[in-house]
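Now read this:
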Amino acid sequence: MLKYSHLFEPITINGMTLRNRIIMPPMGTNFANYDGTITDNHIKYYEQRAKGGTALITLENVCFDYPMGTNGTTQLRMDNDQYLPGLWKFNEKMHSFGACTSVQINHAGASATGLRLGGLQPVSASDVASKKGMTCPRPLKVEEIEQIVNKYEEAAARAKRAGFDCVEVHAGHSYLLDQFLSPHYNHRKDEYGGSPENRARFAREVLTAVRKAVGPRFPISVRFSAEEFINDGNSLKDTLKLLEYFNQEADILNVSAAVNDNLQYQIDKMSLPDGWRSFMAKAVKEKFHKVTVTSGNFRSPKIAEQVLENGDADLIAMGRGLIAEPNWVNKVQFGQEELLRKCISCNIGCADHRIAKGLPIRCTVNPDVINEDEYKKDKLRNPIKIVVIGGGTTALEAACSAAEIGAEVVLYEKKDFLGGLAHEIARLPDKKRIDDYVVYLVHRAKELENLEIHLNEEATLDKIENQKPDMIINASGAHPFLPPISGLKETQSKKERHVFNIFDLLENMDAFEKNNEDILVIGGGAVGLDVMEYFTEHRQSRVTMVEMMPEIGKDLDLITKLGMKELLKKYNVKQYVGTKLESISNEAAEVSRDGKKLKIKFDKAFVCLGMRGYAPLMNHALNEYADKYGVSVVNIGDSKRARRIYEGTQEARRILNEVHLVDARKNLVHSR
């Protein structure tokens, strides 16, 4: 019997048969050309997910009313027939790998990208911005609403002509239809505002028009925010009432959540559990008895199977999980669960790149979201021996990648575990997903016979010389930075000390289990906020934060920053920004702000002033050895400069360029 029988049971929805229950929801990529045409990178990216076994690929939200309905740095368009050939090509490719396809047609409304509006004011139900700080929109006139309904109809007809198997209407996430459905945005007094029936009128008219365009035997999906998680927004109960007025033409009810101002519940923050939204889908399914989709940090096949088995939903939408692991379905189905490269919900390469920075999407744990495993085809032509110093995530990714193209790799890690700082940070309850990446890398390494790992063994120059390597990769990580501040080093040496760093916490969590203390955190970056999160959420303690910059969490990714701001407010964390630590004792810290000094007493203090690269072997002796024997030496990851896992993963994969150069040099020698 199949291990996950519900996950791999086919389902037919109004003539469309899906091979399993895993679908890819629409996620913007910023891969489109400036003119809105689809690119080869687009098709290759989606192709990996289709080849990987995904049942339904939903193309990211596509603009059909340009420029008023557009959003994102670059966005696909289908507002006229010129875009059909590219979309047809996309569908041909996805169908060739057995996947069905859908496209999300969406009008941004007040969320429209201002740069494309040419000075025009965005439109909405009312004059309420879709997000704090965004441009105030103008209310649509009734005749304009009718025109937009017609454009939805035209877009749906185009979608069917382009070869899609399904079409999805977006009615959530602070886009135009949601701006009518939600009382937070909709303050109208006419037939499109006020009562649930009136607020649902626009959505009903759109779905009626879409059905007219595609005919009775063509699946229509509608995505909506079942819970908006804002005081004056729609609750699940409200949405169930609204759906009575606009679900009639939908075959699939895609249950999502949240709006722009609480994006951490739309693009799930790391601490939310697998399938946390499934209760919403269950309520929708029980009331309307239609095919229902749920989403929300799904990474575990076991939990996805349970949700389906319990009847909470019919389909599992896995977004970021498929960015990280395009072969999720095939690996689960064919017994390679240990090799799942699970998304860790860090939201750095996907959400932050796309939304906050306007860049094409990338992934912290997947070094190449477009080409996936193509690097493995470019095998080395000569025997290459590589020594890797360190066993963190950067070191492991580099070691595995090099071994996979044919190098003989020896890795030295001085500790008794692999994963480095990532594995240690994952000891914090709200950061445990990070360890999924470490687990994947360890299992991947075990599969490689030409990768030899030495734990509890520090690399020395003698050991390296004995290996006679062609290349040395240093990835020895980083350690906490302790600036020359009065009292700081003295407090660290006390037997009964109350001043700690992040490793003191991570390496002995049991010593910090006391509740209801006064905790001082010096440094408001990622590590300082992790400490704050632990002591507020899990130790019910009072936290004060001191940060020299003008804001806490300045360089965090968008989603983590929103989640942390929520915690800072929820737990009334005292924040001293633009504030400098002058001195510290075992009981109090002296800080200064705007020329004024302040003493802050504490039960425990954590100094989180960043990390510094640690590369003791990158010295004259190693360079002398390398020069003498023509050995290539490369320093990567945190040992080069302390950064995030994302940068280390990217550098680790790029190391293959250097490996191939070493191979090419050997070819030149042999050809002489």
User: Anything to note?
Assistant: The longest helix spans residues 645-671. The chain has a mean pLDDT of 96. The two ends are 60 Å apart (CA to CA). The first strand starts at residue 11 and ends at 13.
